[in-house]
Write a structure and sequence with these properties.
The chain is α/β, with parallel strands linked by helices and 288 residues long. The chain has ten helices and twelve strands. Strand 1 and strand 2 form a beta hairpin. The radius of gyration is 22 Å and the shape is globular. The termini are far apart.
Length: 288
């Protein structure tokens, strides 16, 4: 009887599935690409099935890989649960805490918070994972996540809700030329592009403004912010964390935008881990 599939094999398989290529999986696991290729080849030989078709644009799953994926994902959750349980037994408030957050929150809220954390919890090292896509907290991709929606997964818990008041912001040189209050269509908008075209606030702007065309669009929040700072136009965001340094000011559009809720979320098995608990406490005390 052959040996059972190891977690190492499943982890490699999942890394290729999620990253879309052998080279990206190697970076994700901090391994060499030949190691990834060898592991997948050995796995395919043991299963007597091809799992990926390699091409110019990466690795495409085969039907055999699709059948294997749910079991591999379950293995990942069990591995993360085991890791959570072992770390939950620790008493030290030390180590790495990974926080996943939307780009705006990561830049405007979490980056400034890192200085507070460094002063109050010097033995904790923060890793901020900035991105629009949700990470799977049940698999240990991050310890904490800030989400814009209440979690529905039974394995997750929302530890705190905070609210942010978004507004329209621009550089003084741009705003001083405007006739206030402004109509939506009179402004030069900077917003999301590419695969993030459906991310707020772009869908709202497209509904409000006929034949909406942004003056600049980007899939990177920092690029959008830099363009606004340069005076090209305006963007909708929560209050920037460094207003004085950025010299961004709010633009009067005649109405207040809806308040945006955010939730601090983690896996239930992680909520009592000392270092996670202390970081969440600091987040609750400092995030606005």
């Amino acid at each position: 009887m052959s040996a059972p599939i190891s977690w190492e094999d499943a982890q490699t398989f999942l890394a290729v599935v999620e990253s879309g290529s052998f080279s990206a999986a190697a970076r994700l696991l901090d391994l060499g690409q030949p190691t990834i290729s060898r592991r997948i080849k050995n796995l395919e030989q043991r299963l007597s099935q091809q799992l990926f078709v390699r091409g110019k644009h990466g690795a495409t799953r085969t039907p055999a890989a699709d059948r294997l994926l749910p079991a591999a994902e379950q293995m990942a959750k069990w591995a993360a649960e085991f890791d959570h349980a072992t770390r939950g037994a620790e008493d030290l408030v030390a180590g790495v805490v990974k926080i996943a957050a939307p780009p705006g929150v990561a830049v405007e809220q979490l980056a400034p918070l890192s200085a507070v954390l460094a002063a109050q919890l010097p033995d904790i090292r923060l890793e901020i994972l900035s991105g629009v896509d949700h990470v799977d907290l049940t698999r240990g991709t991050a310890d904490i996540a800030i989400r814009t929606q209440f979690p529905n997964e039974p394995e997750l818990i929302a530890l705190h809700e905070f609210q942010s008041q978004p507004a329209v912001y621009g550089a003084p040189a741009y705003v001083t030329k405007l006739k206030l209050p402004c109509d939506w269509q009179d402004l030069d908008w900077v917003t999301w592009a590419g695969k993030y075209r459906d991310i707020s606030p772009r869908p709202m702007l497209q509904k409000l403004i006929p034949q909406f065309q942004p003056v600049l669009a980007s899939d990177d929040y920092l690029v959008q912010k830099a363009a606004v700072k340069a005076g090209i136009g305006v963007m909708i965001c929560s209050p920037p964390g460094d207003l004085e340094a950025d010299a961004l000011i709010a633009v009067d559009i005649g109405v207040s935008l809806p308040v945006s809720p955010f939730f601090i979320v983690c896996a239930r098995s992680m909520q009592h881990v000392p270092r996670v608990k202390r970081v969440v406490e600091l987040m609750v005390a400092n995030l606005t």
